[in-house]
């Protein structure tokens, strides 16, 4: 069944093109003794016919997703640690090189990026609603405010700290449906020549690679250059730069400024033209993406079923938030995967959301290598495969499903 909803950017009609069915909260890892009913919602995605913003059809309450027990930490990946360290040094040498500069990060998580800024003695503030990870950033010497960012928050920060030279967000803005309040807050907090820089998964890469697991409860928006350009214009800002990033399976970094404050870079026009050529905003292209997603689901289930019937053991690698979409959409449970290994202590000993696959520490993987491992954390494939070379040396094979199902 398809449906329509109202666009959270412009208010026009959003037409559904892909339905993943009933899903749990992607980070609601469950204690095996817990018998209470799990929260569930319908995960479906559609596109606005006016501003081209791709978004979820149903909103999950933010307090249900981002809370004191939120398990994701940025420092868990060496690639991401270096990514944020490099970015911070870039800010310090450019936007934060003036007299008494100030940077605010939205969704600062464990403070991995701001820690480098703090070490340089630059004024900063992280705004992070998830208590436990906010405490990690404070322990690392980062000044943090435990709160959701919206216009009233921004006005309070501007009153106490002054306006910001940089407002930054990584894998955060796409989480937030109430974009009108966010962007009003950005306008209120930004210096006249300041910049709002954010990076999030790129719709173009998701469609091209059929990386459908980038769609889950926390990713309310799937941005493109076209939709961000429209979003900025409608909310009193201007898209002035776009940069492609390799992290997290393909992202774009967008730079917004107040109208006329910055010269618009050539990359913006280049990305807009590329998206027009690829017909990224057209319903036909998105419906073909949906068909490709169903084909990947069928191929993955067929492969796992065959391996199990042949007596092979398969385990999962990386109890990621996005793996909830895969396991629940594909109907993959402990009958097909023995367990999922993960380095996050808060997830170990629990069951994956909805699919109820046990989560085990890495030793369960290395102490008795399985013949096959389904790599849920495929966006860190290079880093993981290098780390787990002993698994390959022992004869193990990885199962990947982006962009297609294959064994390597």
From TrEMBL:
Residues 7-66 form the Methyltransferase putative zinc binding domain. SUPFAM superfamilies: S-adenosyl-L-methionine-dependent methyltransferases (SSF53335). Gene3D superfamilies: 6.10.250.3100, Methyltransferase, zinc-binding domain (6.20.50.110), NAD(P)-binding Rossmann-like Domain (3.40.50.720), Vaccinia Virus protein VP39 (3.40.50.150). InterPro entries: Methyltransf_Zn-bd_dom_put, Methyltransf_Zn-bd_dom_put_sf, MeTrfase_14, SAM-dependent_MTases_sf. Residues 247-403 form the C-methyltransferase domain. This is Methylation protein EvaC.
């Amino acid at each position: 069944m398809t449906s329509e909803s109202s666009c959270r950017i412009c208010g026009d009609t959003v037409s559904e093109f892909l339905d993943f069915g009933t899903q749990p909260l992607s980070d609601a890892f469950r204690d095996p003794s817990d018998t209470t009913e799990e929260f569930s919602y319908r995960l479906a995605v559609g596109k606005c016919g006016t501003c081209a913003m791709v978004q979820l059809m149903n909103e999950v309450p933010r307090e249900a997703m981002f809370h004191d027990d939120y398990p994701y930490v940025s420092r868990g990946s060496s690639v991401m640690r270096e990514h944020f360290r490099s970015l911070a040094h870039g800010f310090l040498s450019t936007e934060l090189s003036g007299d008494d500069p100030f940077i605010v990060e939205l969704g600062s998580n464990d403070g991995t990026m701001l820690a480098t800024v703090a070490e340089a003695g630059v004024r900063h503030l992280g705004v992070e609603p998830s208590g436990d990870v906010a405490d990690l950033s404070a322990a690392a010497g980062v000044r943090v405010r435990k709160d959701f960012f919206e216009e009233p928050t921004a006005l309070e920060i501007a009153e106490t700290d002054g306006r910001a030279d940089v407002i930054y967000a990584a894998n955060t803005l796409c989480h937030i449906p109430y974009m009108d309040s966010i962007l009003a807050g950005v306008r209120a907090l930004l210096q006249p020549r300041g910049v709002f820089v954010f990076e999030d998964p790129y719709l173009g890469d998701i469609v091209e690679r059929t990386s459908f697991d980038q769609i889950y409860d926390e990713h309310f928006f799937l941005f493109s250059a076209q939709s961000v350009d429209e979003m900025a214009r409608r909310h009193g800002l201007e898209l002035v730069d776009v940069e492609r990033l390799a992290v997290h399976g393909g992202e774009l970094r967008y730079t917004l400024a107040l109208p006329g404050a910055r010269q618009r870079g050539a990359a913006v026009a280049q990305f807009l033209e590329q998206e027009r050529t690829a017909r990224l905003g057209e319903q036909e292209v998105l419906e073909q993406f949906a068909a490709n997603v169903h084909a990947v689901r069928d191929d993955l289930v067929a492969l796992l079923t065959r391996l199990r019937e042949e007596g092979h053991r398969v385990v999962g690698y990386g109890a990621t938030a996005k793996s909830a979409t895969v396991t629940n959409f594909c109907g993959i449970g402990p009958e097909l995967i023995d367990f999922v290994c993960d380095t996050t202590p808060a997830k170990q000993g629990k069951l994956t959301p909805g699919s109820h696959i046990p989560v085990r520490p890495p030793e369960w993987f290395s102490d008795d290598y399985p013949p096959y491992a389904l790599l849920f954390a495929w966006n860190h494939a290079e880093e993981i495969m290098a780390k787990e070379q002993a698994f390959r040396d022992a004869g193990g094979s990885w199962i990947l499903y982006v962009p297609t199902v294959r064994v390597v």
